[in-house]
Amino acid sequence: MSTQDTLPFGMPYQRDTRYDPPPALMALQEQPLRPMRYYPDGTEGWLVTGHAEARRILADPRFVTGEQFTHSPTELPHVFVSFTEQVPPGFFLFFDPPEHTRLRRKVTGVFTVKRMKDLEPRIAEIVDERIAALRAAGAGADLVREFTLPVPSLVICEMLGVPYADRDAFQSNSAAMLDLSLSVEDRNKAMAELFGYLMALVPAKRAEPGDDMVSALAVDDDLSDVEAAGMALILLVAGHETTANMLALGTFTLLEHPDQLARLRAEPGLMTAAVEELLRYLTVAHNGIMRIAKEDAEIDGRLIRAGQHLTVVLQAANRDPERYDRPGELDLGRDSQGHVAFGHGLHQCVGQQLARVEMRIAFAKLLEAFPGLELAVPSEEIPMRSDMAVYGVHELPVKW
């Protein structure tokens, strides 16, 4: 590895704009697989910004996630670094085959396209209920608090069998787990509290099982209680955090791109393509996916040594000019298929079909219900989630 193409330290992550990845990060795309130095001690690893390279590495079993991540691509400890020593059994995001396969297959059947299609009427009901609450609130509201966070939270609570009345605790703990500005100790404390809550729920579900996912996990003889609770933990956190932020940031983005918003209103049949384009364009999982090489591997003529960290930067891959024409432009009519907003390979998001259905229904009904929807404050006053593992907005004051 030569020194002239090694970054001094880490990946640029501080944003200069609301929707675009940092320009300093995008400038690195000329070399889609390049060496970089990791925090805290400058150990050498790799930064992956190319679309083809991202998909190849994420699908390659030589690059694993079930290891102890000791280095971070930014000066803020990456969520992978925070959790790998504390992660409970069943939290299959950090496992590799065969254990990952054993656990993930227990929930994949729930998230099929067909099953998500069957859920559409109930999701539509939940969205309608939240729109009615928005109307009742008057002529404006914080869309995050009143709509974009409640919709996916209600949906995942019903699917899992988690009481929605407990939402304040699990939402605050979920947010703390993903807050990269907090100490590792505080993030782990939040995870422990949420895990403890689910550990108490599992035996209660076994005693009186219902038609929900936690009940199914609780009565599965192949799972221990800690495994069932760990699986519920990842499904609960991922099941509302990512979609909530896509809905909020997506709405903000549409309001800031009135030509694209007008196009979507005029052509509602574009909604499926629009959701994919918003996923590509925004890519809320913006801190990179971590992998470790378990053996020496050559990629694009580069030798990656066993034990080296790699950071796959999804938002850069989704803006790769080698894959997408005019990648920095929002184009709701674009064919955005093949994006990596949900990751790729064995670890791609298990709930991606649910997220797509929720977004299609929520965006369509929101835009139909409020034709005069607009920001209630100047866009520069919208607080962004720059130091969160999932990008978005903390609040979205709107009026109609």
Structure description:
This protein is of the alpha+beta class and 400 residues long. The chain is 46% helix and 9% strand. The protein contains 15 helices and 10 strands. The protein has helices at residues 23-26, 51-58, 79-83, 99-108, 113-137, 143-148, 150-160, 167-177, 184-207, 213-218, 225-256, 258-266, 271-282, 314-317, 352-369; strands spanning 33-38, 43-48, 63-64, 140-142, 289-293, 297-299, 302-304, 309-312, 374-375, 397-399. Strand 6 and strand 7 form a beta hairpin. The chain is globular.
Identify the overall geometry: globular
Q: First CA to last CA: what distance?
A: 56 Å
Arrangement of strands in the largest sheet: 1-2-8-5-3
Number of helices: 15
Q: In the CATH hierarchy, what is the superfamily?
A: Cytochrome P450
Question: Major sheet, described briefly?
Answer: 5 strands, mixed
Classified by CATH, the class is: Mainly Alpha
Taken in chain order, the helices and strands follow as HEEHEHHHEHHHHHHHHEEEEHHEE
Rg (C-alpha, Å): 21 Å
CATH architecture annotation name: Orthogonal Bundle
| Number of E-state strands | 10
| Average of per-residue pLDDT values | 93
Strand proportion: 5-15%
The overall number of domains is 1
How are the secondary structure elements laid out?
Blueprint lengths: L22 H4 L6 E6 L4 E6 L2 H8 L4 E2 L14 H5 L15 H10 L4 H25 L2 E3 H6 L1 H11 L6 H11 L6 H24 L5 H6 L6 H32 L1 H9 L4 H12 L6 E5 L3 E3 L2 E3 L4 E4 L1 H4 L34 H18 L4 E2 L21 E3 L1
Parallel strand pairs: 2-8
Antiparallel strand pairs: 1-2, 3-5, 4-10, 5-8, 6-7, 9-10
Keywords:
400 residues; alpha+beta; Cytochrome p450; 5-stranded mixed β-sheet; 10 strands
